[in-house]
Specification:
Length: 295
């Protein structure tokens, strides 16, 4: 390239390093071949590198070229996992951006699983999955995989308050009220789990979805007939949970499922419930490593 047109390499007036620079919201189909089957994901991809203080601009077209070169060919040669694709892209980015010391790729997509309602009605349920990789020059690539699940929580605090009032209001059935779930307020819950995938290990997003869903008061479903609706409500009230309970249950179940993962394995869990009797939401989060949890 003629030096006069290579604006990115010109002298920098304010010599500050840039942590991330790149392109966002690149939309591509990605074909993934997992033990659970082959599927095409409509993905949104963000691609970054860092920029040293003596480099005026990043060659962003290289990010798009790397994305097209590696993602487009999955139509013919499916990848084994989104996190593996992101890691390969990170390595290629560092080769193309010789001035960069860091690269990052973030891939997000809708994801559908066939689920069955309590009374046996099948439907495709929507989830979100996310894969991320971080590359450092002359170091190992860090890979992450995650899911976002929409479900239902019911408030244990309000339930006990209601139980106490019902005992006074209906003294003839006070004893029975101790044995059954009573009314409380429902909350639509959104929980995200993101975890590192250690080298030579595999994490299946279906397993992560199951762990998160089982940690809520109840799963939710697109199609529910009258009997199903009642069953979901009863199930949720039999299993009331704070967002704190949701996060702690996920942490416990992850440790049990991946008991052989190294202590340095990173994990993030965030659970947020949209309150029905308040104008605010309730949120709990833990960012940690397996080692810290094991302590």
């Amino acid at each position: 390239m003629d030096d006069s047109t290579d604006v990115q390499s010109r002298q920098v007036e304010h010599r500050f390093k840039i942590t991330r620079v790149g392109v966002t919201n690149v939309k591509k189909p990605i074909v993934v071949d997992r033990p659970t089957g082959k599927r095409t994901l409509n993905a949104i991809i963000d691609v970054y590198v860092d920029l040293p203080s003596d480099q005026k601009g990043s060659h962003m077209s290289r990010n798009v070229e790397v994305t097209s070169d590696l993602v487009d060919k999955t139509v013919r040669e499916p990848v084994e996992g989104l996190e593996n694709l992101a890691a390969t892209m990170c390595k290629r980015l560092l080769k193309r951006h010789e001035y960069a010391s860091y690269s990052e790729v973030d891939i997000r997509s809708d994801y559908f699983l066939e689920k069955t309602s309590p009374k046996g009605k099948s439907s495709l349920e929507n989830y979100q999955i996310r894969a991320k990789a971080e590359g450092y020059r002359d170091r190992e690539i860090n890979k992450y995989i995650g899911v976002t699940v929409i479900g239902l929580t019911t408030c244990p605090c309000a339930m006990e308050g209601v139980r106490e009032k019902l005992r006074k209001r209906y003294p003839d059935i006070a004893e029975e009220l101790n044995e059954i779930p009573v009314i409380t307020h429902n909350q639509r819950n959104k929980t995200t789990l993101m975890m590192e995938v250690p080298p030579e290990r595999e994490v299946e997003v279906n397993d992560l979805i199951e762990i998160v869903e089982n940690s809520l008061s109840s799963s939710t479903h697109e199609i529910l007939k009258r009997e199903d609706e009642a069953e979901v409500v009863i199930r949720a009230h039999e299993n009331p949970k704070f967002v704190e309970d949701v996060v702690r249950d996920i942490l416990s179940n992850i440790l049990e499922k991946y008991e052989d993962f190294p202590d340095k394995t990173h994990m993030e869990v965030k659970s947020e419930s949209e309150e029905s009797i308040h104008k605010h939401n309730a949120m709990a989060e833990r960012v940690t490593t397996f080692g810290k949890l094991r302590e």
